Each structure stands twice: as C-alpha cells, then as structure tokens.
Amino acid sequence: MSEALIEDLPSGPLDEYRKQSNFNWKSMKIFFEEDVECLGIKMRMWNILSKDPLFSRSHTVQTTEEMKKLAAKRLRRYLQYNFFPSDISSIPYKKRLRLMMAVNEGLALAFPDVSLKHAVGVALVKNTLATLGTERHEHFLEAMWDGKAIACIALTEVAHGSNTKQMKTTATFDKRTQEFVIHTPDFQAAKCWSGNLGKTSTLAILFAQLIIDDQNFGLHAFVVPIRDPRTLLPYPGITVGDMGEKIGFHGLDNGFLILKNYRIPRENLLNRTADVTTEGEYESSFSEPGKILGAALENLSLARVGIMQGSVNYLINAVTIAIRYGAVRKQFSDNGNDTEFSIIEYPLHQWRLFPHVASAVVLKVFINFFTQDYLDAVELSNTSDRLEEVNYLVSEIHSIICCAKPLITWTTQHAIQECREACGGHGYLKAAGLGDLRNDHDPTVTYEGDNNVLQQQASNWLLKQWHNLSTGKKIESPLLTAQFLANHAQIKKRKYRKADDFRNPKYIMDCYEWLITYIIEDTASTIQNFLSRGYSKFSAKNHVQVYRSCIMSKAYAELNALRHFWRKISELPSDLRTVLTNFGILYGVFNIDSRISYFYQGGYCEGPHMVHEVKQTILDLCGELKPNILGVVDALSPPDYILNSILGRSDGKIYEELEKSFFNNQGNSDRPNWWSEVIIENAPDFTHRRSKL
Amino acid sequence: MSEALIEDLPSGPLDEYRKQSNFNWKSMKIFFEEDVECLGIKMRMWNILSKDPLFSRSHTVQTTEEMKKLAAKRLRRYLQYNFFPSDISSIPYKKRLRLMMAVNEGLALAFPDVSLKHAVGVALVKNTLATLGTERHEHFLEAMWDGKAIACIALTEVAHGSNTKQMKTTATFDKRTQEFVIHTPDFQAAKCWSGNLGKTSTLAILFAQLIIDDQNFGLHAFVVPIRDPRTLLPYPGITVGDMGEKIGFHGLDNGFLILKNYRIPRENLLNRTADVTTEGEYESSFSEPGKILGAALENLSLARVGIMQGSVNYLINAVTIAIRYGAVRKQFSDNGNDTEFSIIEYPLHQWRLFPHVASAVVLKVFINFFTQDYLDAVELSNTSDRLEEVNYLVSEIHSIICCAKPLITWTTQHAIQECREACGGHGYLKAAGLGDLRNDHDPTVTYEGDNNVLQQQASNWLLKQWHNLSTGKKIESPLLTAQFLANHAQIKKRKYRKADDFRNPKYIMDCYEWLITYIIEDTASTIQNFLSRGYSKFSAKNHVQVYRSCIMSKAYAELNALRHFWRKISELPSDLRTVLTNFGILYGVFNIDSRISYFYQGGYCEGPHMVHEVKQTILDLCGELKPNILGVVDALSPPDYILNSILGRSDGKIYEELEKSFFNNQGNSDRPNWWSEVIIENAPDFTHRRSKL
C-alpha cells in the first residue's frame, strides 16, 4: 500500500488541530479507500478532469437548460476518456465491478448528474441487457459497449411507483406482424422520472404488462427505440419530453413517455426468463434458476449499492466542510479575554457534528466491505448449483440492502442539514457546497425503492427468520446476520448491570442483539394479536410499522454496519485501530441513546443509570475525539477540486476564499443592468448635509 | 365574524375525505386567522396580486439575476399598491402593527424575497429610526415612509455574527470636521449578509464601534449613505457588492460592504440612547429608560416575531401539500383486491404527517396570540413608569422568543423534509413547491440569532429564575410562564401512575412542568459541580448545553405554546374545540415521547407502562384524527394562488396538473437547441429490423 500516492495537505489555520492527532492520516486514508487500485484509478480520473475546462468546478450560475447541455456534453467526453484499464473486459468479475464502481464513485462526487446519466443510461442498461436479454439482443449490448447509444430505463409511471404490479402500460402481441404493440392507456400510465429520457436517450428499456389474446402475463422488459439517433427527434407514435425543473440534479434530463400503439419487433422482448413464440405461446424458461436469481439480485441491487456508496461520500463531504469550518471559525471568548475559541471547542458543537463523523467512519467501512459480500453473492449465484443456498443468500443480501439504503441515506440527509446549520450563515452560500449536496442527495431517500417501503421488506425477512425459529425450522442466514436470533432465550434474559461498559464494542453489540430480539418478538406477537382480531395479514403488517418494524430494520442495519466495522478494523495497526474503535463506539452509543426507551419498555434496564451512562459516554467521547477529528476528516475527504467548498478547503483559508468568491463572481460588484428600472424618482441624496440642526 | 369572506373549495378527488369531517372548516379558518380584518386585508392583497402579471406564480426557470430584478421590481410595485388602510397612521399602535404583520405574512407566503426586501429595507429600518433615532433623523424617516429610499441593516461581519461585541468596523469621531470616519480594517470586518445591500439599497443602518480619542464606547448605529439614488452607483470610499448565489432566497440581494475611511456627519449617529457632542464628549441619555427598554425589545424581537409567523405559514403550506397528495395518491391494495388505498390510510404515513399537522395547529394558534402578548409588552414598556416591572416583562418576552424561534423554525424544517419525502418522487419536482419551501425557509434556523445561541439565552433566563427561587427571591415572570417553578417541591414529587390519562390536557401540562423542573435542577447542580472543579462560568455553561439547557429551552417553548393553545381553544364552540383538543394532545404526547428518557432518568416513571401508553396514545390519535385531517388542513391553508403547488391544489386534481406541467413548461417537449452537439456519430438506428434471428 503506497502512501506516496497521497499528497501532503497545505499548511494554514488547520495546522493547530492537525498537529494534535496521534496517527498517520495517510495510512487511514488507504484503509478508507479499501484498495490502492481503486484510489489510484479515481485519482487519475480526478487529475485528468481537473485539467479539462469542460469539467471546471465553478460556482457560476447557470440555467437548467445550460446544466442539461453541460451534463450531456460531459457524458460524451467522459465516455471518450474511458478511464478503465484497457484490459477491463478480461479482469475477473468482482475486480472489474469494483473498479467500475470506484470510477463511478469518483465521478458522482463531483458530477452527480453525469454519473447518474452514465449509470442509468449505460451501466444499468448494459447490465439489464446482459442479464435479462439473450443472444438476440447482442446488437443492443454491443452498441452500449461501443458508446453508440444512451438509453434509459422506463419503469415508473405517473400514478405508480412502489406498486410495480399495477403498472398500466401494455405490450400486446400481434401474431400477424410478429410485433408487440406498446400502449399507454392514459396519462396516469405515462412512464416518468427516467433519467436521460427527457432530452437525449434514443433507446428505452421499458417495462410493460405482456398481453397475449387478452391474457396478462405480468410485467416484462422490452427494448424500445424512441428517438432517431441522427436527429434526436422522437419516432411517430412517441410523445416524449422533459419533466421540468426539480429540486436538484439539474443536469439530469428526467423524462416522461407516452406511447400510442407503438410497434416493436417480437425479438425486442428481453427473453432470458420467458419468451413469446412466433405462434404466440408464452414460455417460461427456468433452465438456469441460480443464474436467474443472481441476475435478479444484480439488477435489483446494483443501483442501490451505488446509491449507498454515493451517499456515504456525500456524508463525508458534508462533515469535512463543517469540521474544517468549525476549526477555523472562532466566536466568543471567556470573560474578559479577547482570544476567541474555535467553535469546534464548544461541547454542543462537538455533539452536533462528531456523531456524524462517526457515522461517516462506520458507514464508509461498512459499504466498502459489504460491497465485497454483495459481489461474492452475485458471483456465487451465477456459479453455484445449490439452489436453496443461493436462494437464502439472495434473500439475505436483499434484506441487508433494504435496510442499509434507508439507514445510510437518512443518516446523510440529516448530517448534511446539521452541517449546513453548523456553518451558520456562510453555510447558506452556494459556494459552501452544502446546499447542492442536500438538493442532489435528496432523491436517494425516495428512489430505487422508497426508504419506508424498503425497510418493510427488511423487517419482513427478519420476521420470517423469527417465524422459522418458532416453528422449529432453521434460520436462513448464510451470511450469519440473523444467526444470533437462535440465541433468543439467552438474549432476552440479559439485563443492564452497573458494571456494563459502553466502551466495550462487544457490549454495544449485546445491546443491539437484545434490542432487535425484543422488537421482533413484540412485533410478531402484535401481528398475531391483529390477526386474531380479524385484520388481514396486509393490514396487520401495516399496523406494526411505527415503533416496531421500522425500528427493527434500522437497528438491524446498524448492527450489520458495526459488525463489518469491528471485523475490518481488527486487522489494523494499533494506532489506527484505537482511534477508529472510539468512533465505532460513539456511533453505537449515539444510536442506542436514540432508542433508549425500548430498553426501558422491554425491561432491559430500570432506574436512571443506563440512560445516564449512555449520555455521559457520548459527551466524554466527543471531548476525547477532538484531537483526532481533523485527521480523521482528512483521511476521509476527497481533494479540494472534488470537495469544491469555500468553507471546506484543506488549507483552511476560508476568509481568503470568501473574499475571492465575493469579488470574482461575475457581476457581483457591478451595477445591475436593470438599475434604471428600479430607481426611485425624486429620491433624496443624503450625502448633502442638512442645516436642520 | 363573517364566513362569507371564504370561498367554497372546488369539488374533486378530495371530496371523499372532506365529507368525513365533523366540523365547519370555515369557522375554524376564521379562528386560525385570529382576526377577520387581518384575513380580509390579506385576501384583498392576494386578489389584486393574482391579477397582476408581475406577480404571476409560474414555475418557469429563471436565472438568479432575473429573480433579483423581479424582486426589486415587485417591491417597487408593492410599495405603489400600498395595501394598508388610508388611515393607517391614525390606527392605534397594536392594531396598526398587527395589520402590517398580516400584510407581511400574506406577502411572505408567496414572495418571500419581496417580503424580506421590504421587511429589512423598509419596515425594520423605519422602526430602527423611530426607536433609536431622534428628531434629527426625521428626514430619513420621512423618506422611508414616502417610499423614497430602500435601505439595509449592516451588522454582521464576515468573521463575526453571533458575537456582536467583537465587530471590528469602527466609527471614529473627527472633532475638526464634526464627522464620523467609518472604517473596515480588513476583509474579515466587511459587513455582509445585509439584504438589499447587494444591488439596490442606497442607505445603510450600520453598526460600528464608536471611538473617541482612542477610547471605544462600543457598538452604535449610524445612518450611512452608500449609493447615489439617481444612479445606484456607490459613493467613493465604498466597496459594495452582492455575495453571490445562495441556497434559496434567490431574489434577495444579500451584499457585502467595505468602507475606507468613509465620512458621515456627526448627526448620523442614532442618538436616542447616547450621543457625541460637538466637543467630542460621549453622553448617555437615560432619561426615558422604559422607552429605551421597549425600543430595544422591539428592535431585537420584531424580526424574530416575523420569522416565527412566516415559519408557521411555511409549515402549514408543507403539510397542506403532503396531506392533500396523500389523500389522492393511491398505492397498494390488500391481497387479491384491485382497489388501491390512499396512502394516507397507512398508519405509518399518518404517523409521519399528522404530528406535523398537530404542530401547525398548535404553533399557528400560539404565534397569533403570543404576538398580542408581545405587542402588549412593547406598548406597556412605552407607557409604564414602573421600571422594574417593565424590565422583568422585557426579559421574559425575550426568553419566550429565544426559545420559540428555534422551536418553530426547526419544527418547520423537519416537517418540510418529511412532507417532501411523503410525496415520493413527485415531491422532488420544483412544481410541487416543497423544495423552494425548504430552501427559502432554511436560513431561519441560523439568522436573526442562531437557534442554538438563542436557546442558550432562554435557558439562562430560566436558570436565573431558579437561582432567584433558591436564594429566596421572587420569580421575575410577570407573564407567569415560569411561575410554576415556585411549586417545585410538589412538582418534583410527582410520579407516573397507571391511572394517568394522556388524553387529559392538564396531565400533559403536568408532565411538562415536571420535565422542566427536573432539567433545571439537574442543570443548576451540574453547573455548580463544574464551578467547584474550577471551570469558569462561561465554560461551565457550555458544558451543560447538550442534554440539559437545550432540552430545557425546547420543553419550555412547547409548554408556552400549549398553554396559549389550551387557553385560546377553550373559548371555541364544542365542535371545533373537540377536534383541536386532540391535535393539541397529539402535539404534547409526540414531544413527550421524544424526551421520554428524561422521565426514566429523573425517576418520574419506571417499568414499561408510561412509554407504552405514550406511544399507543400517539398511534390511536393518528387513527382518530384521520376523518378530520383534510378539514383542518383546509382551514389552515392559503388559497391555491398562494400555495402554488401542483400536488397541493385544493381541487385534488394532481394528475391533471402534472400533465399540464409536463406539457406546458417551456421547451419540455422540444428537441434541445444543443442537440447536434451531443448526438453520437454512427449510432445505429434500431428501428430497422435485424435479420439476425
């Protein structure tokens, strides 16, 4: 692992805090980057982009139309650069995917719209074609590999998102012409939100109800040409457009699509799992069930894994900005003293920010190493013939993702807001970067599975394991994330004792196991109670979301994150391990505190002692972590070109940057060209002294 | 009270829910509006503005420069309209202020940038001149009344916001020329963030350290001409400009200002409280101490009261959008059934939104009636000669505001985010309105006193009352907000019993009194502990913020809000009172739940019962409130022209509006004019069938 890759940080007002840290931040950086090759490929890309004027990071104001144009041009240029090694196609699957993910992470940090245009328009479509298509779709796939098409994925409809089964778009087989007739029955069935669809994509992977002779065979995927690639004009029968302004992601052209009896060849059905014969017979093909499961996992989850990686990077950016600003910004002094304190010295400010730094630390390590588990699972499902095991593995990975994506994206969303507030007024400047982080991050909590809906899926998996246990079956948890439930009788007997030590990672994990076990049992019995009162299963499950299933999912997600974290940091040299252990503990106790009422409700503790200890541990840790906080943030953070915040610069020269920003911004100091339209007639000139007094 | 003022709501998909409510929403609306005159003046304004093309509510994309121009032109037009009654100057103080506030509220809801330009550039400056200035500043005041000047208030500096004492701008008296020489020593002392300063204001009320013969007499206010009103060009010696792009409030030109030995006449010092004689003598004038206190209260607090009013209105807008959308949007059905449920039917969705509706209800009533207390206090302080009483009153009002502004603005901020998420993907559209609400509301949590700093001031006041008690002095609480502390011995003895009823407003208030008493006592003793360990008072107070002072302030703010609420609704007819009581209870128990750990920590309860009851009460209330939720939102919400959300329309026709929005937006369906710059060369045309298979 070469630390030589990493440049020293510039000297400045942050030196005072950097000197206090007692570990090598470059070694820690390499640990956070997981893989020196992944870091290398990103740094090469950043270096090249930083010299390309098309990728300059200005805070100049642009119209949405200009941002869309810029994103489209950047995507073209990005594809031309081709940052992957020339032998990328021969690199083994896992390594290849990891490198591709690293490049995507590096791009998404600075150019989220370009990254998303690429992810949905190239990467995901390639993947869908490769996994749901067959040899007859190779010409599409080839075109994607050669950069000859930008596509989009058209699933969501105006009136249906989460409930995909109720999609109304139909694909009716016409045996006479051997075509599918794609049709949008009304505006509520218009496809929408598809990235690239608004202005630029020429192909769509479209999901529609497959109809043969009035029989509905359910949702299937079709390749639908929508625009002429030579003119970018839509084909007849296609109504397509941009959805208009959004809260963020301004460069992404999210579109809508209405098809009026639009015909595509029969072969455009992606027929890996099912096909329609020339005779109009529907045929399922379950010849390779493991592969189908793997493909399903990959298609469902790849985007979510990417969202989690990107979200953690946004979290890192936010805390980097707020911590560096907090170290430089001084305000108030002790009585009669003129020397003001850096605001990071105040316990309240530490408490507002350090738990978010702890989240960044734990979740960065988690998502790195969970990505490996995920890729292992995909690989195994593509090669193993032990169907049951693959089935269990796919379900478990799915449940981990379904609770981790909400955990990570909500954590980041809250952290960005707190960081913006912790930077005070200056945090409200666009050039601080926090507004764009918040607005571009915002959709992650509702897209690729609404967080609340995903959490329910994770809790369903946990409840199934609980049900298995109570009916004498085994827990289907090949990754062992739920194996502890087998121990439920012992776990439930645990009680808080005064000697329990929140500084002990093992004890924190014990608390989590108790909490999850308690909530699962309570949830399962509450569901039973509803069922016995005549509620349907659907309704009963809806009635246990609040205070039960949702909390179960969140706690399970945190348990998974911490488990990966402890395991990974155990391999580190002691200086790094010691520092990181404290961040892990802060993460754990902070989250335990937010659910402390369950420990009382479930009889785990009584009296004031546990809650007092938890809160005191948090306060103590905030104080103890202060000397290392700058170093940890330096190890997490990307270079200035990528961070692009006047408040978060690695040299700490925030006032110099503010000054430049005020004076260099186009037109800031000019009289507006509309001045004559707003001056007030006969306004007095107050520079003339009055003789009144 | 005439309900005839209020139009019926249009029929549509919301009828189903509207029919379920069991009260007259128009009567409730009049209650929420407080005063039929206030409602009338707003409706008249809205009616006029809605017909003026300059005030059209389009979602058309504009550059920041265009938005600044538009805001400046709108402000001019708004001043020309003059929505106040012609006899405004003869209306008694309280009534006059309330009407002015109503107009401001009405404007701020739809045109926050125009409202803020007016508030800081006209209203606050007028007020400052009237209260801090004397007869020698009448020509300035006249000009403001006549709409002949747009000013700004220049207090904050680049490196100092909260700590005003450390401002570095100086105003040095030059006896020879009878002038003050205003000087900005370095960029960190540049004035910044002043609204209107960026592009348009011609005058500044500037705060600077007053220096005479090297002696610093502290911060004083001066009138400083900065731009020539005939040309809008800055005067020599003035460097002024716009701060550049922000997260929101795009129409407001926040500026910076650097003065290089810039001279103003001696008379431009606002000399109500202190003056400098022609001989260079500094003279305090304490001739009217009550008035001075009143003036200070008015100047400090008027802006904060306005922020709270505006923030509650934003909260109302956000919940209106999400509740109406949730009633129309359907997703998922019970097994084997095609009829999907409105998402508002799901307990989780209710729990996500209804507590925010409860906040809107309670805080709207609170801010209306607290505004009366505030105006009474200002009036009393201007007329009373009982100095001690006025002093206490001013302090108490200040403490109520210092905790209410954080409570309200944070509540709104969280609610807007939840509402945006509860509207799913469509909530991410600009036309949904939630993004602009969030971005324009965002600065309220850090400006006019950072929320965390303000909270500390409120807790200091409470601690002072506690100290009074423990030293045998009386509680200085003429408004009786802290009078309950006198009862502390009894309050501390309270314990939770199973018979306690969370449906009883009185019991909720008992819980609050216990909570605040417990935290104050704990905080006071912890401060003593720190002091005895050698901490300075400053440091000790900083160490009790987390988990103590902050929580104390929040709970005290909620107690004040609920107290006003119960008192006011007690005057209502029983149909309204019954509904509103339940919203008040939901507000109370929801917030008690979020601090339940203190009840365990302080020994108020033990075992599972209390937390279980609290949570169950919340869940039950959500279910019970559902039939009335639409009606309450209708009673709270402004007309569609003001709400301006495709998802929140009063006719519930969200899909029709989405369709219009997709098709009517300029350029949505056009090929972009940059199409030829991004097409891919030699891209295959996939509409030509392949003969491959």
TrEMBL record, chains A, B:
<keyword id="KW-0560">Oxidoreductase</keyword>
<feature type="domain" description="Acyl-CoA oxidase C-alpha1">
    <location>
        <begin position="301"/>
        <end position="463"/>
    </location>
</feature>
<dbReference type="InterPro" id="IPR046373">
    <property type="entry name" value="Acyl-CoA_Oxase/DH_mid-dom_sf"/>
</dbReference>
<dbReference type="GO" id="GO:0055088">
    <property type="term" value="P:lipid homeostasis"/>
</dbReference>
<dbReference type="InterPro" id="IPR002655">
    <property type="entry name" value="Acyl-CoA_oxidase_C"/>
</dbReference>
<dbReference type="InterPro" id="IPR006091">
    <property type="entry name" value="Acyl-CoA_Oxase/DH_mid-dom"/>
</dbReference>
<feature type="binding site">
    <location>
        <position position="195"/>
    </location>
    <ligand>
        <name>FAD</name>
    </ligand>
</feature>
<feature type="domain" description="Acyl-CoA oxidase/dehydrogenase middle">
    <location>
        <begin position="152"/>
        <end position="261"/>
    </location>
</feature>
<dbReference type="GO" id="GO:0033540">
    <property type="term" value="P:fatty acid beta-oxidation using acyl-CoA oxidase"/>
</dbReference>
<dbReference type="InterPro" id="IPR036250">
    <property type="entry name" value="AcylCo_DH-like_C"/>
</dbReference>
<dbReference type="GO" id="GO:0071949">
    <property type="term" value="F:FAD binding"/>
</dbReference>
<dbReference type="Pfam" id="PF22924">
    <property type="entry name" value="ACOX_C_alpha1"/>
</dbReference>
<keyword id="KW-0576">Peroxisome</keyword>
<feature type="binding site">
    <location>
        <position position="156"/>
    </location>
    <ligand>
        <name>FAD</name>
    </ligand>
</feature>
<dbReference type="InterPro" id="IPR012258">
    <property type="entry name" value="Acyl-CoA_oxidase"/>
</dbReference>
<comment type="similarity">
    <text>Belongs to the acyl-CoA oxidase family.</text>
</comment>
<feature type="active site" description="Proton acceptor">
    <location>
        <position position="448"/>
    </location>
</feature>
<keyword id="KW-0274">FAD</keyword>
<keyword id="KW-0276">Fatty acid metabolism</keyword>
<dbReference type="GO" id="GO:0005777">
    <property type="term" value="C:peroxisome"/>
</dbReference>
<dbReference type="InterPro" id="IPR055060">
    <property type="entry name" value="ACOX_C_alpha1"/>
</dbReference>
<dbReference type="GO" id="GO:0016402">
    <property type="term" value="F:pristanoyl-CoA oxidase activity"/>
</dbReference>
<dbReference type="Pfam" id="PF02770">
    <property type="entry name" value="Acyl-CoA_dh_M"/>
</dbReference>
<keyword id="KW-0443">Lipid metabolism</keyword>
<dbReference type="Pfam" id="PF01756">
    <property type="entry name" value="ACOX"/>
</dbReference>
<protein>
    <recommendedName>
        <fullName>Acyl-coenzyme A oxidase</fullName>
    </recommendedName>
</protein>
<dbReference type="GO" id="GO:0005504">
    <property type="term" value="F:fatty acid binding"/>
</dbReference>
<keyword id="KW-0285">Flavoprotein</keyword>
<feature type="domain" description="Acyl-CoA oxidase C-terminal">
    <location>
        <begin position="504"/>
        <end position="679"/>
    </location>
</feature>
<dbReference type="InterPro" id="IPR009100">
    <property type="entry name" value="AcylCoA_DH/oxidase_NM_dom_sf"/>
</dbReference>
